[in-house]
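A.,

Following up on our hallway conversation. Structure tokens first:
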């Protein structure tokens, strides 16, 4: 079964972490992401680069920034293949232990061919 690991970062904590420590953390995380049970992953730019599209009063409204105002933001996601939720959670826990900030949300991927968002 496929699972999405949604990676949330806390920019304040991340930015206070020394550069050399962030490099070490990134290298350790990349080792995990290169394993065969990781089907793919994307890292996102920081929230300042986001634009949100909303439907309002019959038209589209473009808003600079992310949809929610929070100190945690979606920094990227990882797609994994796991036998069950326990397997996906184990990988998420391993990744989170490497990172001293944020959180990882685990969600099953909907397997519905031909259906979009």
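Then the amino acids I'd put at each of the 117 positions:
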């Amino acid at each position: 079964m496929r699972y999405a690991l949604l990676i949330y970062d806390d920019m304040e904590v991340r930015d206070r972490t020394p550069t050399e420590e962030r490099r070490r953390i990134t290298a350790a995380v990349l080792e995990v992401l290169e394993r065969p049970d990781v089907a793919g992953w994307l890292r996102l730019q920081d929230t300042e680069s986001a634009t949100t599209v909303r439907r309002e009063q019959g038209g589209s409204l473009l808003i600079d920034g992310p949809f929610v105002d929070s100190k945690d933001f979606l920094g990227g996601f990882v797609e994994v293949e796991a036998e069950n939720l326990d397997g996906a959670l184990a990988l998420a826990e391993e990744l989170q232990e490497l990172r001293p900030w944020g959180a990882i949300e685990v969600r099953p991927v909907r397997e519905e061919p031909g259906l979009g968002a």
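The CA atoms of residues 21 and 33 lie 18 Å apart. Curious whether your intuition agrees with the design.

B.
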